[in-house]
Amino acid sequence: MLDFLFFAGLVLYFAAMVLTFVGMVFKNKKVTDLGWYVFMAGALTATAYLVYRGIVAGRLPLSNQFEFAASFSWGIAVILIFLHYRFHLEWIEAAGMAMTFLILSYAALQPREVTELMPALRSAWFGFHIGSAAFSYASFMLAGAAGIRYLIAAKKDPNDERLEQMDYFIYRLIALGLLLLTITILSGAIWAEEAWSSFWTWDPKEVWALITWILYAIYLHLRLGRKMTGTAMAWYAVIAVPVVLFTFIGVNTLLPGLHSYGTLTVSGMM
Amino acid sequence: MDKLWKFLKSMKFGLILLGLICIISVAGSLIPQNAEPMTYVRAYPDHYALIFSLQLDHVFTSWYFVAVTLLLCLNLTLCSIIRFRKIPGSDEKEIEAALRVPSVEKTDEKTLEEIRKYLRRIRCRETAGENATVYSKNSFGRYGTFLVHLGILLTVIFWALAMYLPRIIDRACMPKESIFLDDGTEIYVDSFSITDDEGHLDYKSVVNIILPDGRESGLKETSVNHPAGIGRYKVYQQTYGTRGAILVRDGEGHEDRFYVDSNDFLSKDGENGLLYDNVYPDFKEENGEMSLVTSTSGSYENPVYVYMTVEEGQEKEVMLAFPGDKTEIGGLEYEFLDPVEYPGLRIKESPHFVNALLLLSFLIMTAGLYITFFMQPVIVSVDQEGYTVLGSKPEGMRYELKQIVRRNKEK
Questions:
Q1: Who among A178, A191, A194 is closest to B369 (CB)?
Q2: Chain B: residue whose CA lies nearest to A200
Q3: Which of A207, A218, A265 faces B29 most closely, judged by CB atoms?
Q4: Rounded CA separation A145/A169 (Å)
Q5: Number of A:B CB contacts under 8 A?
Q6: What CA–CA distance (Å, rounded) separates A217 from A212?
Q7: Measuring CA to CA, which residue among A64, A55, A117, A192 is closest to residue B196?
Q8: N or C terminus: fewer CB in 10 A for chain A?
């Protein structure tokens, strides 16, 4: 049942992405609308999957690479749905759906079995720290998606009236992501003091979270302080996405450290 | 001098420093930190000299990283002062000025009514003037960027204090024994367990911290994520180990229990006895051959002792034994007992005020970011012909009002 829900969500996201692209290319609103409803179905299925998995595991589904990726993808979908209904941002949908699908595809490549929560993760900070990280990364991914959309639109028509809106939402998504990443880092520091006795250990995950934070802090300084907007800032949002992905995937696979839960087994260590 | 001062307090300088911290951090994450020198010689045979000379083996405590951090603190201090001084004393002056500003965005009366409705719906304060009405909200938002910079500055300072002021001591201790610190503090370990009542992994010690002035914590549990503490001391459940236990009896009925480590030699005469090697958690039997399991994350399910008999000073043969087994060597009887699990504890002594101040700076920083981005000050002047969005960050409100104008045009 769990696997069925997971792959149903993945297939629905894929179908939604294809329909939305086709609708956009052929300027067919009906197809685009159909794509959106399929995407909503995918998001509902993914929600059901995460809730069901959480009930089976008896905890929040955030404990390993697979669960984090699934929640990360769900976070993108939730923000995308919020943007659709609150701000009617149709231009971001195709790129956002692609991001949702890609992250869930990455999750599909990870081991999916439900495991017991290891003692190191049994903390009141577990959901808060990891949940805010998932939504923070989701915001940054969507900012990147908006950046891609901006660059395509600007190349097609430099006078496209949606460009200002796109630029504004790149900035707002990055602001939201930075606030959530700050909460992630600071709650992680408090948790680290409870678990390891130190607020900060220069663990690779911490270092790359800091690098990501600085990168987006620089963006916001340029955007708000230097009033930089337009193509350069859209490129910035796009180029920063690989850094977010490296912080999530690269660090866990290439730079093992204290955060490598589920990939490192050391006898006698907790 | 003026130019230097101007540069030190500039955003440009701040961004350069942040960029430098990023670059140094990348190096620090890719090159293992604080390892033994030989680790670098083996891993980077062509570049280890460069690594040592650039202090890349400990970049986060290198002189240049500390220098960049100190300069960032200076820049943040100046930025915080500048931002604080730029905050207007009250929003009344801004509102008065807004009442005199002629509308910039011209639109029809119907749209203006929609805009007024929207501004009332989001609970803006209305100030009516002769020709215009000013709608204002979130005046506290003016403090946002100041609070962010102050929060970051305080975080860096108190974080550095929280990192370098505490004294950390890592000690292993057998249950029913104590750890004594040089200031007279005693940490008594009453018990240690690896699993909870339901058999789930849950590393837990029960300790009593007794301070030099006689105050004590009483028996308290310390487990992963839940340190026990009293006064300036916190005791963390850090690691654990398992030691072999052997009961030794002589012919006259005397007996003694020994917790043994690798290469411990138990003997009556120093010539004949038992040379302990290790105790393993479990074993496997395949095709009549036995192999030892070398590690586990839980308790030892089927412990296997490995030892050597020594006769006349000569090591004879490697032997295996299970708990309950007995052997006699050189006039002594050795009985192998169940191995004993013991905790590795981390003892941290730190002043309370640093943690409290660090948490306060976290709060200021987070609140500052929230206020900066999600409580932006709103000042909108609406007259008979149109509206004007004022304030330090008018973009969000400008966007919302544009949407109203666009929707009305579409209608």
A1: A178
A2: B163
A3: A207
A4: 11
A5: 123
A6: 9
A7: A117
A8: N
Distance from CA of B268 to the nearest CA of A (A): 33
Q: Which residues pair with B209 in a beta bridge?
A: B187
Q: What is the pLDDT of residues B149-198, one digit of tens each?
A: 999 999 999 999 998 899 999 999 999 999 999 999 999 999 999 888 77
**CB-based contacts of B209, cutoff 8 Å, min separation 6:** B185, B186, B187, B188, B216, B217, B220, B228, B229, B230, B231, B233, B235
Residue A270 has pLDDT above 50, yes or no: no
Interface list for A 186-215 with B (CB within 8 A): 186, 189-191, 193-200, 202, 204, 207-208, 210-211, 214-215
Angle at CA of residue B244, ends B238 and B246, nearest 5°: 145
Residue B71: per-residue pLDDT: 96
**A211: chain B residues, CB-CB within 8 Å:** 22, 25-26, 29
Probe site for chain B from A116, A205, A210, A214 (most B CB atoms < 10 A): A214
pLDDT of residue B327: 93
- Sequence ranges of the domains in chain A: 2-113+120-254
Secondary structure class of A201 (helix, strand, coil): coil
Tokens of B298: 């839980």
CB contact under 8 A, B297 and A120: no
**Token pair recorded at residue B302:** 């089927």
Classify domain B91-138+376-410 at the CATH topology level.
TATA-Binding Protein (3.30.310)
Q: What is the pLDDT of residue A150?
A: 96
Task: Give the chain B residue whose CA is nearest to the CA of A116.
Answer: B200
- Tell me the two tokens of residue B241: 């180990």
Is the pLDDT confidence value at B129 over 80?
yes
Cα nearest neighbour of B31 on chain A: A255
Query: Which is it for the CA torsion B128, B130, B133, B137, positive or negative?
Result: negative
For residue range A157-166, list pLDDT tens digits in order: 999 888 999 9
**B286, amino acid identity:** E
Q: How far is B252 from chain A (nearest CA, A)?
A: 39
The pLDDT value given to residue A260: 59
- Tens-place pLDDT, residues B66-85: 999 999 999 999 999 998 88
State whether the Cα torsion A109-A73-A48-A35 is positive or negative.
Answer: negative
B25 touches chain A (CB under 8 A): yes
Q: Please indicate if any CB of chain A lies within 8 Å of the CB of B237.
A: yes
Q: Write the ipTM.
A: 0.90
Interval B131-145: pLDDT, tens: 899 999 988 888 999
Interface contact A131, partner B, CB < 8 A: no
